[in-house]
Amino acid sequence: MYLNPRILGSGERTLVLSHGYGGSQAIWDMMLPHLARRNKVLLFDWDFSSAPDAGEEGEQSCYTFSRFADELVALMDEMKLSGAVYVGHSMAGMVGCIASVKRPDLFAHLVLVGASPRYMNSEDYEGGFDKSDIEAMLGSIALDFRGWAEGFVPLAVGSADPSAVEPLARSFFAMDPRAAHGLARMIFLGDQRGVLDDVAVPCTLVHVSRDFAAPPCVGRYMQARMLAARCAAATMETIDSVGHFPQLVAPDELLGILDLVLGDAHEDADGEETAAAAAALAEEMSSEVPAGGLAEAAPEVQGDIDVAT
Questions:
Q1: Is residue 303 part of a domain?
Q2: Of 104, 100, 101, 89, nearest in space to 17 by CA
Q3: Domain membership flag for residue 42
Q4: How many folded domains does the chain comprise?
Q5: How high is the pLDDT of residue 284?
Q6: pLDDT at 160
Q7: Between helices 131-143 and 145-157, what is the axis angle to 10°?
Q8: 34, 273 Cβ separation under 8 angstroms
């Protein structure tokens, strides 16, 4: 379920950058020159980032959070990584939580960016979406995924800036519509709140102040539940911005938080050393992108949805 793994940069610390629904590893491009200066950075694509055929018509994807977590563990074992700082965006945040419960030795710290264990509101929980909203969204995805994505992407980015919207739109449009629908069902109908009780790895929760998909109240819920259970440390940082993708609209603010997690001072990127590192990284990135693109594997399609509490 993962494609195109590659490691950039060097250093004693390893970062694992994991994208969410509709994204690809390119979502981190604006942050890579800074992160790879002093760290080894693992990037990869989940297989849904470009699935040419999600299976026979009428079938639904068998994606589950647990399967994604197993694939993350397998990838980190394959790369012989341990004690990494994991940065998971959106759905990948909960994937990292589950993986850390399965294999805590692989993770030194979890940075959960716009993560949510439950998107649906209930009497005692505010997730951001009413059940009717989710049902309508899933219906739109099933009926016309591209049409839905054309409206959703600018809203999710929180900006009309083409430099932010267009790259994300391309990765959304690369998804197979049936895979996109199955994955959306997994995410928006799922309930992973119980996982938070078992996370022992220190966590930093990062939320955008005006994010309709994962509002800050979700981060506060996660922090409180983790601290009440097993988590050694759970802090929350709020970025004063709009949208669900701070990598695209507030990269400097997100880098500042990551630098604090990594113990770095957030340095100005104007020096000769930084320029040379950025040039070397650009050359490395261009030489390592697979010639065949992302379309290397299709997801299994069996209709299994992970809604465990």
A1: no
A2: 89
A3: yes
A4: 1
A5: 53
A6: 78
A7: 130
A8: no
